[in-house]
Amino acid sequence: MKNHQYAIAKYNLKIAQKELRSIHFLDEETDKIDNPSALLKHFLMTAFLDSQSIAIRGQKISQMMASFEEDALTYLDKNAPLSKIAFYNIALQLLHFEVGEDFLIDNSITKMKTLNLPIAEVNDPMNLYDVTCAWYLLLNTRTKRGITLIDDLANEGYFAQNYNSFDKPLIFNGKSMPVYDTSNLIREVVYVEAPLDTDHDGKLDLLKAEIIRPKESNKQKVPAILTASPYNQGTNDADGEKLTHNVNYGLKHKTPNQTSLSELSTKESVDLPAPREVEGKTRKAEQTFSREQSYTLNDYLLARGFAIVYSAGVGTYESDGVRTTGDASETISATAVIEWLAGNRVAFTNKFDNNQIEAYWSNGNVAMSGRSYLGTLQIAAATTGVEGLKACLVEAAISNWYDYYRENGLVIAPGGFQGEDADVLAVETYSRQKSAAEAIKNKDVWDKQLKAITEGQDRETGDYNAFWDARNYLNDAKKIKADMFFIHGLNDENVKPINVANIWKAVAPLKISKKMILHQGQHIYINAFQSIDFSEMVNLWFTNKLLEVENDADNLIPNILVQDNASEQSWYEVDDFDGRENVESVSLGTPEDGTRVENNQVSFKDNLSDDDFNKYCHNAKQWQHDLVLGDSQSAMTDNRVIFKLDKLDNDITLNGSARIKINAASSQDFGMLSAQLVDLGEDYRLSANPLPVDNTRISLGYLWREDYLREFKFEKAKSPFKKVAEGHINMQNRNNAYQVSELEAGHFYDIEFDLQPNVYRVKAGHQLAVIIYATDFDKSIRGNQDVQYTINLENSTIELPVNKD
Amino acid sequence: MKNHQYAIAKYNLKIAQKELRSIHFLDEETDKIDNPSALLKHFLMTAFLDSQSIAIRGQKISQMMASFEEDALTYLDKNAPLSKIAFYNIALQLLHFEVGEDFLIDNSITKMKTLNLPIAEVNDPMNLYDVTCAWYLLLNTRTKRGITLIDDLANEGYFAQNYNSFDKPLIFNGKSMPVYDTSNLIREVVYVEAPLDTDHDGKLDLLKAEIIRPKESNKQKVPAILTASPYNQGTNDADGEKLTHNVNYGLKHKTPNQTSLSELSTKESVDLPAPREVEGKTRKAEQTFSREQSYTLNDYLLARGFAIVYSAGVGTYESDGVRTTGDASETISATAVIEWLAGNRVAFTNKFDNNQIEAYWSNGNVAMSGRSYLGTLQIAAATTGVEGLKACLVEAAISNWYDYYRENGLVIAPGGFQGEDADVLAVETYSRQKSAAEAIKNKDVWDKQLKAITEGQDRETGDYNAFWDARNYLNDAKKIKADMFFIHGLNDENVKPINVANIWKAVAPLKISKKMILHQGQHIYINAFQSIDFSEMVNLWFTNKLLEVENDADNLIPNILVQDNASEQSWYEVDDFDGRENVESVSLGTPEDGTRVENNQVSFKDNLSDDDFNKYCHNAKQWQHDLVLGDSQSAMTDNRVIFKLDKLDNDITLNGSARIKINAASSQDFGMLSAQLVDLGEDYRLSANPLPVDNTRISLGYLWREDYLREFKFEKAKSPFKKVAEGHINMQNRNNAYQVSELEAGHFYDIEFDLQPNVYRVKAGHQLAVIIYATDFDKSIRGNQDVQYTINLENSTIELPVNKD
């Protein structure tokens, strides 16, 4: 374990004393204690629960060793000088490190340092104030189990012994404590009347929202966190599967055009039906629910006094409307709920009686949370500047749907989801059909809507068009008023990193708080990692934004935090992401030995034997392997060219997008080019997915929901390479994604395109390689067409974004 | 889905009416309803929670379709004749089958039949009584999500709306209902004074027990289920790993002996210290705990009013003593807790004050539950005939530790755990050392104890000795008084099926209730399967045994239930297991083409090239593949002989152990023989592990803990073979496991040994094969020795236990 904690607020003795009083470690009785050992014993006795007997708590203390010779109880009961090493011997045991297995008694302080755990600056032996400060810091230190000690004690029942005896909210070291009884939460449904009529039934769409909030919120207002999740009410996987498109067809020549960007942005104004007449008002919801589709970070926050609201939007189970996949109707689905939470929109208790219910329990400060589509709708909602939305925790989100399903005039699937498109996603999330009656009633309007999506997405050309422009949130990024916290996996091939890079650049000029974490995962959550205090950072941030506690969150949380790809459990800060401030232009040079160079030109074909083609269609991993490593026996050998750059003498870090600039020709009047930047070098690399750590279960509150501790570890065997980035372009879209240019067979064109951005450390002794090819078996359409591509080596380079440091 | 429900108790109109009244579906008001549709509407309104408004419940009903034209609300509100098809249209939707995806409206009754869901015998159209009976049956029918509808409603909050309004326990259709508030359970620790002093400190060992019980048990006694789990308080995985034995050493010649069985069974009598003097009595425990190491079936039972007790036994965290791996001390660790629960033993509130606490809340009826080691300790405890123990739910348990770590005079590891032994397991479970103070204090006694285990287990000879005899529960099987329910995976290579077969045969003559389920899993739990109502069977059984409800459990639950290996979601009953009533003796015939037969003898060697040896050591799967399929190029080709039996014209089912009878010689004065029975035939076969079904989460009570629905499915690709059974023998133990016979190099001996028992259907067109070899890379020691084995074909047969039907 190597600990990285950012969410420890600054403190001094006065703060420590005050806050320890608020969580009952100090009181009038303890003011009388005049011996440091006695004070530490008191802290331990208190930590082991007042609800347990003195004998049991003494038994617990005596199970720990304070020195080689003495158990902690014996040691402390002597009231002799308290050594720093004894304190940290006990501290490590409290943090669940085992003597023998994890550390040696005489080595506790060195071990604390090795683990990167904070050590209080105290005298040795310690005085009373030292014990107070060191104990305060220890409570805020993360245990081996990936949570802070105070959260660990909370999970043992520290606050649950007597929830009523603590202030609510209870802020300790800038973070909100789990002092809310999660076995006694209010769970209620409301129907928000959205300014939408997507199913054209002449009535505004009512959208179901599930609310979970502490009992206390009936009396004391709390902030709300909305997770807008179209998946939340169920999915239609079989139907989605059925609609999934065949991708084994060929690229075609496109008729050139001069489309301008402005003509794409058609905002239709829709005449909306009148709102329902409010026929009554109530504070009593009529509908409840049991097990919601939850998100463990929300569960963590629920125990800490934040209300959680789940809403799935138009066309989902028990809501009105139809699915639209990412357009303004979905944005409004989210903002309507935010408006209700902020007191600016009407909601009803059921779909018939027009009985209004207000979010009387909401303090009006709303945040959003969630990953993927759930993060996407945060960006969507934020770009409206909707009142009440104070903060977004955007994980692995789409900032522009074109960057999800398309790329530079090509149909490029999210990794692992060949054939998926906006219409497939619409069908999958149309959970309204789970009610048989609703499915039948709305069949016609839904069929029509689905047809419109299929047409609008246009799998024929792959061009950027009005459909995609209506789903490009970057257009309105400047309207964002909420503070934004982005989290994205640098290895996310589903929602690719360009999405976070672009929104990051778009919000750069805005006067909002902006944070970003770039991790080594794919399309995952990171809130149960051992090496980083993500949940605590989120707590600190939301406590600041929503509870308006001055806790220095914006200073404590790094602006950009990156997980290193070349070591375990290592995180560092960078100044910028994809800023392209220091770009090195490198000639591609001569391709790998064995490739035929003629007239300073190199060619590769795209078609394969039927057998090889089918093999790769069913095994994209094999294709990727052969693309990079395939020798002259490999089916890919003539289907790509590899340019190997010089072996590195020193580590370099790439930050941002590499840009391919080549002069190339197709043997046909159509063509696509793909490129990968690859790190070559037999080495240990991080596992693709984080692995469970010791099967450690993390409780998110006392006897509340749970998560499992995870971490990226090096794989057991070395691997020969790792893909750093990739990109694709339709040669006819060499100007941009919306304009089609002419392409003559055999004619050479200058073609530039960016690869996906990354922050990547290439180690000394390794070597970068650039691979140029056409069909991407994992993501592009696969026509197995008879095309030959030729690259003019003279004018072909790659621009590498080498970090300044 | 194909449903198999055994735990539906017989009922009639009177029972249905009475029980529906007890769960508030019927009352005085409903007695006035005179229209079948109105009665069904009332049932639906009630199912959708009284705590929700009438409008919301109407909304829920109107989301379902009753016919092609009408939603359920419209249909029922007409009060027209209620058709059976409309009832089952609605029923299937309540059971979470979706119209369109899962069934068509006009097809509901056929679909019920296809799914093997019970259909009430009613008139069409239905009368009032029909509706009552059909609704009653429907509530007891399993949904698509693998739980009964009444449990599904409970999970939605049906009982939780007002826990206080229901009888406790509430028996519905013979099963105990989840009417206990799991957010409000009592969690307390006691220290049971066991009649043991394993750490020789002159004081009886105090054993920690964690109790979880409903609040109501303070007033009304409840039954208790003990899970005795040595893993429960944590494990020392790193230390266990360290002690794991090297298995790459050679077999040696053993000196012949005439050991008799009787001389092995030495029962030492131990002088025990005097019990502690009780210094006080209390009903108030002093210690609590938060998240216990749970077992989902226990969680299911907790919501249904059974107290759950976890106890880890001697040498575990916060208990006294040292680990002994399966001997009488561990048995007594379990029975001591049972005795306390039955009022026959003293426990204290802590380890110092001698303050006695009784299980005043226990009704004295105790059961045990758990799998593997946890099941083993059930067999151990049951064989003492301890008072209070009424029933055991024994999953994948060891009945004789020799059959776990040894076989016929050989060290044979549990599959996947090469090098593990009784001492390794002792170290892994010695969680007492997790307290640093305890580890230091008991270091000497523990080192000595561990040494004794290592010596006793005797990895040198592999013979059955006094150490193993003290860990052979079969010796005392006749003392069992508790009713026994065995569950075992037919593919369990960890705790091999011989364990369940032997205990099953041992209890056969006893006048107790005996049940057995043999499933297609490995070493797994089966309580979240979609195709079988295991949890409900357990509920029925425990309700009968512990709550003493006359529910016909012993008749309803099949004596032996087997999961078919050759089809999905298929279970059937058999009369006996491993009864060997119909044995076919089949000559092995001539081995596969290519094997050299000389003088009607066939030979194979055991040694391999270093490369091949190392390869197989690290890849037992590859070894298994080559053993069965390896051609003349394979490294295994000369290291085994394969005898292929005739291709089958019809399916046959094997039931029990096949017996190998061969006349064989070793080229050395030592030798081991292994055999596998294999089903050859390219076919679809069940996955080795059950797979999640639709990511369906199963709540085990209202907002309580959860499990995931699972099921075995056919693998996506066909496979060429499946191992049916295997066995191993040291040629010097050809008489038995405890006597060593002489072995002269080159001399032929008659050798008989049983393969593991199985119940296995071999399909027509398939063919059985017998493979004879020596080293088992997955389980035996691996000496890579220069030995040649020769089999005399004339006198070599296999006895196949072919089922009579």
TrEMBL record, chains A, B:
Residues 539-799 form the Xaa-Pro dipeptidyl-peptidase C-terminal domain. Residues 254-287 are annotated as: Disordered. Homodimer. This is Xaa-Pro dipeptidyl-peptidase. It comes from Apilactobacillus apinorum. It comes from the Bacteria. Its EC number is 3.4.14.11. Pfam families: Peptidase_S15, PepX_C, PepX_N. Keywords: Aminopeptidase, Hydrolase, Protease, Serine protease.
